[in-house]
Structure formats: structure tokens, C-alpha cells
Target: Chromosomal replication initiator protein DnaA
Amino acid sequence: MNVTAQSVWENCLSFIKDNIQPQAYKTWFEPIKSVKLTDNSLSIQVPSKFFYEWLEEHYVKLLKVALTRELGENARLVYVIKMENTYGNKQPFTEKIPSSNRSHVQPQELDVPIKNKSPELKNPFVIPGIRNIKIESQLNPNYNFENFLEGDSNRLARSAGLAVANKPGGTSFNPLLVFGGVGLGKTHLAHAIGVEIKDKYPEKTVLYISAEKFTQQYIESVKKNTRNDFIHFYQLIDVLIIDDVQFFSGKTGTQDVFFHIFNHLHQNGKQVILTSDKAPVDMQDIEQRLLSRFKWGLSAELQSPDYETRVSILRNKLYRDGVEMPEEIIDYVAKNIKTNVRELEGAIISLIAQSSFNKKEVTLDLATQIVEKFVKNTKREVSIDYIQKVVSDYFQMDVSTLQSKTRKRHIVQARQLAMFFAKKFTKASLASIGSQIGKRDHATVLHACKTVDNLAETDKQFRKYIDDLTKKLSQ
Ligand code: ADP
Ligand code: MG
Model:
């Protein structure tokens, strides 16, 4: 049989594989390529200097035994270090290091590439020893599928998440992009997928990271000249979860490095999960090539939960906290807090707290006060200008028409409605409302409010105008 670099290396690999853990084999030996065989020296190509140091540090004995079996006592190993993703530098950086010349490498705990600023957070990059290669997943076990309640608003995203968790990298949902507004469960779902994967496939390396932290680490790595280690680290991951990728907007360096990491992971059948507060089409200042990658897999939207889902989220929260609450209160909270699960939880938590601190019964009255606070605090201030704009748009006229002196009935009605809503939704005085809506006096505004009240009771069509406009103005 012809002895080639490849055949020698393959024999070495099968020996090595039998002697170390599968995960370690996969991480440190699969990426190696054999390059050349001259006499009794075999050249192998490794992806970074860091990689070479790690092999020398941890596997030199094993390598020696393996190679001696193949090439005899005088066997030599030559490393070729090849950075495959060297950006802005087309010529790969190549360095040959004969293993016999190596200086002794100090035993070290790997600390690549960046230290965390806050000490209480675990450094995601500490790999505490070869026998137990472990990258801290940074997952929050409290965010799991079990307590991520299903509803029409999240069904697609949730089941795509479950499919990905069952077969990471093995579905067409790669990347899986979960998008939706604030407080709708993106972070929760992202963790849940990771937690589920860790549960099903403990040997897989999962990493959750916010786009913001990823960016900080990248910038730091550039400063410290450890960009290749940064890239290398991320290329080792089986399931990469990046939260809030809209944060990459306008950050071309980070986008570039992420693009390369993404391609590497994707090509190697690794799973990527992303979240964003916008759909890919609405993302700004993100490079086209990256956006097109986002669209390769599945984009699934999280929408505002419907009433039933809001009720079950509330019930579940109360159940987990072991708190009982009258049905009418749950119903009241679910009816009045509509857009955001975080607020929904916030309101119920304050309710529980209020009632236990003050030893008060949770009454509908207390619920009303608390919900009002929540809704008021989050509602954007409506201005008189805005009201005039909304009312004019609704009746398809210009603001100047609405303010004009004309006595045409439909214009007068629009003007009166604008005054009525200005009184209802702002703290402005009658006089001030009058002066802003076509320079009228306070008596005119008062008359307008009374007229609207009357018509609301007697005129069905007019009632509908009020309801429609109330909805538009409370959005
Ligand atoms: P986002 O990342 O989209 O801003 P989060 O994932 O932080 O939102 O969710 C906000 C809060 O709402 C979290 O406490 C989360 O547990 C909760 N939440 C969101 N969606 C659900 C759901 N479907 N079931 C249960 N809790 C949810
Ligand atoms: Mg979030």
C-alpha cells in the first residue's frame, strides 16, 4: 500500500479516537488536515496558533505514540498553522513549527479571548481542562418551553423552536430568526431552545450571547490582537444563539466577523438561532449579504398575545407563585394589558406584592389602580397636534380644513371631536385647547364636548366615530 500523508494521518486518527473522549476528538482533531509526508516527518495543518498550543499542551504524548506507531522511532511532527479566515489579508498567514523545537508551553487555563468586565458573570470562554471541554452555555434554566405558554400569537415561532431543539442543525430552520416587539418573549424562547438542546444533547456546545456582548468581545479582541482566537472560539460552537441582532446595525466590523462565523457554522451543519426586534426587511444598516443569510432559514414572528393567551400566562404565573386570585381580577388585568407580556407579568407581580405588603385583599379596585399605573406609565403622551392629525386623517381632510371657520356639518363634527379628545386625553385647559384648534374660545370647546357627549348617546354612526378614534388614539 502506498504510504501517504493522508493514510498515515488517518491511522493516527483512528488510534487517537480510541483514546480520548468523542467531544475532544471532534473539537481538536477533526479540524486537522494532513499536508505532507517527507521521510519520517508528517506535516499537519491546524487552524490557529492557539490550536497548536493546545495540542502541544494536552496531546503531545498521544500524538507521539500515534505517530511512532506509523513512522517509527524517528517520527517527527510538523505543524502548519493556517488561518482560514484572515480578513483583509488575502495571503494566509503560514508558520511552520517543527515539534522538536517547541519550547515548553506553560500550563494554562484558557481564557480566550476576552475577560468579562463584571466578575459575577461567568466568562463564557473559560475551558476548564481537556478532559471536560466545557463552554458555559450562559443559559437561564428558568426560561424553558414548559413555561413558555402557547397561543396563536407565538405558535409558529414556538413550534419552529421545538423542531430546532429536537434536531439542531438538522432542519431547514437554519438560521431560526425569531422577531417581534419588546416583551413578547424573544429572549425567553431563545433560552428555551438552548435549554432543551442541552437537555437532549448534553454533549453539544451551546452558547447564548446578546448581540451587544458579542460586539463588545469582538471590539476587545481587535484591541488585544486576538481576533483570530475570537473567531476560532465561536467556530467551535454547535448551537449559537445571538439575542437582539438589531444591535449589529451600523457596526460593520462586527457584522463582518459574524458573517464569517455564521458561514463557518452553517457550512458545518451547526445551528444558529437569532432574535431581533424587527423583521429582516425592516432592519436598517445591516449589510445585504448578512440579511440574505438571515433569510436562509425561517423568520418567525412573535405577536402580541390574544386574550386567551394572556389569561393563561397570568394563571400560570400565579400557579407557579402559589398565589390565588379571583377570576374577575385575572380577567380585568388580561383585558386591560394587551401589548406586552412583560407588562402583564409586571402588573400581576405588583398586585401580589401590594396585597401581601399591605395585607390587603386583592380587590377589583386595587387591580384598577395598579393597571392604570401600568397603562399610564407606558402610554405615550398624546398631543393636541397628534389628535388633530388623527381626526383629520380619519375624516380624510387636512388639519387646516379641520381648523377652518367653515360651518359645513362634517367639518364642524370633526373639529368638535378633536376638541372632545383633546379634553379627554390631555391635561390642557379648555382655553388652551380652543386656541390650538382653530383659535376658538373656551366656551366653544365646552359646547363641543357637550355636543359630542349627546351625539354619542343618540347617534349610532357618531358613536362608531368615537370608538374608532378612541382605538386609534390609544394605540
Ligand atoms: P423580549 O426578549 O421579546 O423583549 P422576554 O423574552 O424578555 O421578551 O419576555 C418578557 C417576559 O414575558 C419574560 O418574563 C417572559 O418569561 C415572559 N413571557 C413572554 N412570552 C411568554 C409566554 N408565551 N409564556 C410565558 N411567559 C412569557
Ligand atoms: Mg429580549
Remarks:
- Residues 186-187, 243 surround magnesium ion (ligand 2) (CB under 6 Å).
- Residues 49-71 form the longest helix (23 residues).
- Residues 5-99 form a domain with the GMP Synthetase; Chain A, domain 3 fold (CATH 3.30.300.180).
